[in-house]
Structures are given as structure tokens and as C-alpha cells.
Predict the 3D structure of the following.
Amino acid sequence: QSALTQPASVSGSPGQSITISCTGTSSDVGGYNYVSWYQQHPGKAPKLMIYEVSNRPSGVPDRFSGSKSGNTASLTISGLQAEDEADYYCSSYTSSSTLEFGGGTKLTVL
Amino acid sequence: EVQLVESGGGLVKPGGSLRLSCAASGFTFSSYSMNWVRQAPGKGLEWVSSISSSSSYIYYADSVKGRFTISRDNAKNSLYLQMNSLRAEDTAVYYCARDDYGDYSAFYWGQGTLVTVSS
């Protein structure tokens, strides 16, 4: 049982937008602006897509955006592309100075 | 170019020990906190441990506390994870990752090393 709750799967057609939610508590997501999102393709190391709720590292397309409201963070991918098909994980810093991950969401591009 | 290369994984019996290493290059290792993150086969990511740049602050997930020890040698640009009393549920690919933004988020990851705990 992961500490952060994500939907197991989401899907969308090329060009559409999708949103993945990540729900925690006031001790993690709600308490800090330290939510990150990772993309992971099979057999590969995770790739950081969003840090500090809504910041994109250099090289990440602006189709990827992050936000937070209360204890729930969200990752939105607009203009969906075939290469976006992957697993996505949220993570959050916690009040215990640890890190929690969500259970992961499998994105299928139809 | 930033590189993180893990080593030391392998097959170990339950109750056994293993020491993982992560060799860092391409950046000033002593300036960054570092993390270990693992992923069991077919499962999600799990944060294991974090160590600050000077080793002053060390944190562990509850699942490994008391069994695993994180350490680093800044002179050798290396990060370590000593794993004792290993259990079947510790079977996973172990990644080292650099804390790039001071909040455990990591842009740079190693390729991972597989630890299998089985009799």
C-alpha cells in the first residue's frame, strides 16, 4: 500500500490531454511544495518531469505541467504523443524528512 | 557528463548481507545529497534512504531501518548501501540518485543494480 494514491491507469488519444492525480495528506503533499513527477519506460531508470509541484527541468517539454490543491497534486500532459506512453510516479517530501512515492499510473496512448 | 554507476548487486540468501556501491563522476559529489531508491520486479518505486552532502543527515524508510546503512566517501566520489538481514521482499533493482533540488527529487539516476534475495 503506497502512501500516495494514484489511479492505476489512464488513457488518451494522440493530441488529447490527460491528468494524473496524486493524493496524500497534510504531512506530505499538502504540507510542502515538494511534489515531483517521474516518467518511467520499461527497463529504464525514472526520468524527472516535474519538481517542486510545477517546475520543469531543462529539456522537459512544456506539454507537461504540474499543480497542487490541498492534499492532491496533479500532472497534466497536453498534446498527448505516442512516446508519452509510460508509467508515471508522483513523490512527495514528508514531515519525517523521508520521501514517499505513489503507486504509479500506467498511461496508455490509444 | 554526470554519471552514476551502481555495482554490488547479486543473489544472496535470506538473512545474508550485501554492500552496494554507486560511483559518481562528472560533478562535485561532495556538494550533493544522495538517495537510494528501489523497485521490486513489476512494482513501483520505493525510496530507501538519503544522506546529506557531509553525512550529517541520514534518513531511512521504515522498511529498512535497523537493517540497512547508507554511507558515502566524498574523497572517492562514492555512495554505499550496506544491507544486512536481507529478506525476500528486499529483492529489487536498487538505484542511486542525486538530490538535485534539495527536496529528494532527482534528475540524475544510475542504471540500477539487481539484488535478489532467495534461498
